Amino acid sequence: MSSTSKKCEPQGQPDSAAAGSGWLPPAVLGQARLQQQLRAWAQSGSQKVLLLTGPRGSGRKSVLTELAWRLLCQGGQAGATQTVPCGSCRACRYLKEGVHPDFRLLAPQAEEKILPVDRVRREFVNDLFLRPQLGRYKVYILEADYLSEGAQNAILKSLEEAPPYACIFLTAARPDQVLPTILSRLEVYRTAPYEDTTLYDILRLHGVETEHRQTRLAVLLAAGNPGEALRLSGCDWLDEVMDTGAWLWQQLQQPGHAALLTDGYNKVAALRDAAAGQVPERLHALLTLYTLRLQISLDDLYKQRSGPAAAAAARGQTAAVGWLRDLLPAADLPLTAIELALEALRSFNQALSSNGNFEIGCCRTLLQLQQALSVTGPGPGDSGAALAVPYR
Ligand SMILES: [Zn+2]
After folding, report:
1. What is the pLDDT of residue 256?
2. 36-40: which pairs have CB atoms within 8 A and are 24 or more residues apart?
3. Whole-prediction pTM value?
4. What's the gap in Å between 94 CA and the centre of ligand 1?
5. Where in 78-211 does DSSP place strands (E)?
6. CA 67–ligand 1 middle distance (angstroms)
7. Which domains are delineated in the chain?
8. If you measure from the C-alpha of residue 107 to the centroid of ligand 1, how many angstroms do you get, rounded to a whole number?
């Protein structure tokens, strides 16, 4: 069996010098539209109470921390009109040292699963009505995912009666867990998925070697989420997924079932078993890799039929596409074959999440994939009518 190591930590530390002036808040890369919206909102004079949603790892806290720095900086024109915090005023120095009296980040501490209500009362509810000590604003960032219903009820009145100097920023990966009474008080914004090029920039900032093939796979699997890209780039099992994926892909294009249902099955089972009792992340990574590769084949078909301009509009060509083609080479596949293969992967994913019989599901999927991938050239009834349907 393959390595059972659970190592999966983000590599390196942010290189603050590379981020700009050496000490400023972590540069928020990407999210240009969101940042523009937030700055316009911060300058609008409306009550500064908002909720920023987006998946875990999408940089919600970084975006809001940067906005807080802009609001609290006293250099130049104080307030959110700062292009960047000045870096030399008293507020900036305090923020750098983590001792600014008018900035509070309420997040669970090491062993806490939720934010204790008494801390929420002490550091937010009771603190809110004490005027700012340094400048015009007091900024609070609260992680709403960790607020119990009781804690949410405790902050409701504060949101309703927030003093004009208060900037209250909530973050939530699961906005459906936030009470409707709270949501109705807040301006809601959302992070957008990051471009792959931005993910590479963020990884570089954290000292990750971006030329490695593991990094390419990490970026592909992260699907626009920088936190996921960082976490995955520290996973030592990515090589195993790529090696198994490339070997199996070759087998799937050969006739004969023997190797597929013995060695092939064993390798897939090993990917699943490596994370005993946990989400079979390696197996999901393999299925995602194959799905993305098949979507490239679908793009190729679309390009052949509609011209290059239409294909480019359907989906941007990235460096990852070329890399994935090299890892998993395939002849031109007919539409019916691509659809059959994608459907096989979808069904297997479904069977995995519903705890179906793994052996049966896996063997069936391998045979279906082989049936699809060992065919080349346009198939019968291959009208191409479904090509315009967007995917991913
Ligand atoms: Zn400043």
Report:
1. 87
2. 37/189, 38/63, 38/67, 38/189, 39/67, 39/70, 39/80
3. 0.78
4. 9
5. 103-106, 138-143, 166-172, 187-190
6. 13
7. 31-190 (3.40.50.300), 237-388 (no CATH)
8. 25
